[in-house]
Design a protein that fits this description.
Layout (H helix, E strand, L loop, with lengths): L2 E6 L21 H17 L4 E4 L3 H13 L4 E4 L10 H4 L4 H14 L13 H14 L9 E6 L1 H13 L6 H12 L8 E7 L4 E7 L5 H23 L15 H21 L5
Parallel strand pairs: 1-4, 2-3, 2-4
Antiparallel strand pairs: 1-5, 5-6
Helix pairs in contact: 1-2, 5-6, 8-9
Length: 279
């Protein structure tokens, strides 16, 4: 069985309340593009990859771009891992999440698993069948012992985890309600990664969420490392040392020296992501 990194796309226009005219058209925000870079950095530090998969949605493809740049020789593919679109785009027009909210609430209140809203929409039963097909695909011998990054969407990823935890599912209104409760409990942040591994001992999938690359402390440390990298370039170009020479009084204490060493090590890892920022 493969090792799978399920990745939720970075922050999109829809996530910040901007209107869109079709579910697949929303693009990443500036913050979403930054999250995409952090995803690539995190994956590069965690693993090697054999395959990069995206959905057909624009925000999924944009999120995958920095990872594709970080693994330029890795194969790429598009799978049916797109978001659950249960409201027909034909009837929504150019709208935002707030405007769609009454329709979303009405859909989930009905709890009709086989209901299809119209063109471009799928029923809850069809959605879960698609998620199960994804899990079945991972059992294909073609992906045995492979490491795959799958850039997908919150509802799809939450459905994968739901089937792992509670499956197999008997399709019913209760199942639909249970999944809705799952969605409302512990949301998956934009840019979050879920690492899935199959345990042959327990004969089941095991998974863990990875979000430290999105934490504030990580951001501060990475920004400091980028600054360190910029200063190194400035020093090398000006030929004037930024730190005191051995003949001058030492102004750095041991803690500062240790931090400086750590930042220098990080600089070497993240240099490809910041070279464009250096004047």
């Amino acid at each position: 069985m493969p090792t799978v990194f399920l990745v939720r796309h970075g922050e999109s226009q829809s996530n910040v309340g901007l209107p869109t005219d079709c579910p697949e058209c929303a693009k990443l925000t500036v913050r979403g593009k930054e999250q995409a870079k952090r995803i690539a950095f995190s994956l590069e530090s965690l693993t090697s990859l054999d395959l990069i998969v995206t959905s057909s949605y624009q925000r999924s493809k944009e999120t995958a771009m920095p990872t594709q740049d970080a693994f330029p020789t890795v194969s790429q593919d598009e799978w049916k891992v797109q978001e659950f679109t249960y409201l027909s785009p034909v009837y929504l027009g150019y709208s935002n999440a707030e405007q769609r909210k009454p329709l979303v609430e009405a859909y989930w209140e009905q709890l009709l698993p086989f209901y299809e809203d119209g063109p471009g929409a799928e029923s809850f039963a069809q959605f879960i069948e698609r998620v199960q097909a994804f899990l079945n695909l991972l059992r294909d011998q073609e992906y045995e012992d492979k490491t795959i990054a799958v850039f997908s969407h919150e509802q799809f990823i939450k459905a994968v985890l739901w089937l792992i935890d509670d499956g197999p599912i008997e399709m019913s209104s209760k199942a639909m309600r249970d999944f809705r409760d799952c969605l409302n409990h512990k949301s998956l942040r934009n840019g979050a990664i879920v690492n899935m591994r199959y345990s042959h001992y327990n004969n089941c999938w095991c998974y863990e969420r990875i979000t430290q690359h999105l934490d504030l402390e990580y951001h501060v440390l990475e920004a400091a490392a980028a600054k360190c990298f910029h200063l190194k370039h400035f020093e090398s170009e000006s030929n004037s040392p930024l730190l005191p020479s051995c003949n001058e009084p030492q102004k750095l204490d041991r803690k500062e020296i240790k931090i400086s060493s750590v930042l220098t090590a990080i600089c070497r890892k993240i240099e490809p992501y910041f070279t464009s920022s250096v004047p």
